[in-house]
Each structure stands twice: as C-alpha cells, then as structure tokens.
Amino acid sequence: MRITEFTYQKSGTWNEERAEARSGMTFVFVLYGRCMYAVRDKKLVLDKGQYLLIPAGIPYYGRSVPTKIHEKFVLVFEPDGQTELPLLQAAETVCKRTGKFDLTADKLRLMHREWQDKQPYAGTLCAALLQELFVYLQREWGQAATKTGTTLLAEQMKAYIQDHYREHVTKEALGAHIERSPNYAATLFRKVTGQTISEFVHVTRIKTAVYMLRHSALTVTEIAEFIGYNDPSYFYRVFRRQTGLVPTDLVSDREDIRK
After folding, report:
1. Alpha-carbon distance 13 to 18, whole Å?
2. pLDDT confidence band for 198 (50 / 70 / 90)
3. Helices (H), 171-196
C-alpha cells in the first residue's frame, strides 16, 4: 500500500470536481459536520462518523453543505495488489458509518501528524497504520452482516439519536422509527447498549461539546444551547458527571481561532 495524498480539510465553502479519474483509491472520513459527494450521478451526504471509499478510475464531485462547516480527512492511496480485504477490492463506491469513530479518528490523526512531520519512513508507517485501520473497518463490515435483528434495531435507534441528539429524543420517537412500541424500544435499547436512551443522548451531546470546546470559537453557553441544553448550569453538571472536568477547563486550552 502506498499513500500519495493525505489532507485534513476544514471548510464551509469546499467545492471539488474530479473530472479526471485518480489512479488511486480515495478514502474520506468525516470528523465533524456534513458534506456531499456525487459519484456516478449518485448523491451521497456524509456526516460525522461516515466514511467514503471511491475506487480508482471513478470521477466525482464534492461540495460543502450550505452554511455548514465540516472537517474531514482525505487520503489517496494505491492498495497492495495482493490484498485480501474485500473493501480494498471494491469495484463500486462504499459509503458506511463506522461504530469505531474514536479509533478511526485517532488513527488518522496520528497518520496525518506523521505525514506532515516527514520523519524517516513516515510513508511506510502511515501505510501500515492505514492497512491496520482497514482491517478494523473490514471486520466491522463483516460482523454487520451476521448481526441479529435486535442488534440491528438498536443500531437504527443509535443512528437516529446521532442525527437528532440536539432535540428531545423520546422512546415514542424511537419506537416509531423502528416500528415498534415505545416500551419495547426503550427496553431493547437498554438491553443491547447497557444505557438508557437518556444516558446515550447525554453521552452523544457531551462528546460533541468536548470537540466544540476545543476547536470552535463559541462560548460555553452557545455550545450548551447548540447541543440541546437550554440551562447552562445543567450542562455544567452533566459535563462534569461525564468527564470529571468543567467546560471552562477545555476552553482555556482551545485553539486560538478567533484571530
């Protein structure tokens, strides 16, 4: 495996057209926000936690979603011709959401640092880390094909929460989403995830808050309101219970992006 391009992109006005097909495969992983790709006249909207794998030889067009900032990693690479991973042998575009967001993001951040630092053998290390990442993604893909019906229903509910965590998520809404009764949805969710619906919503909100506190220019109150907490003091309590910190601890260390 050989990586030829590796970029981190953060933009609300990104626009790219690849009319001439690349010789290598393109891998996109969204860290935050939402963007759109059009591949062979099929529109694909990617948001946080989703990845896109475009085989070599396929042109595409991509752009930001209007008024939305997104962050992503984009790699172009040439896979080993001897690879046994079906993902790297795909003839068509693959677009999936991974349940291994933190693992994937951490691997890519480490690889990007190595790529930028240009230390000796950085290319070899990055290729090895990318190969390892694809093993995890391939295993996840294979396991998804053998999951039970109840697990799939739970994952449908988790995906719904990921899309609506800023709102008041109820068992009634989840029950309607999976076409089951509200009590069945709540019981199933707790059985499979080990968390109540409310607990999972709080965890999802706080993960977003941690990222925004470190990387956005918004105030603590603005972030609290954005993720669904209208009462800042309640946000502080939930945040401390989840992380052991207070929001201002992260604000003091955030990137200086106001300049």
Report:
1. 17
2. very high
3. 171-178, 182-193
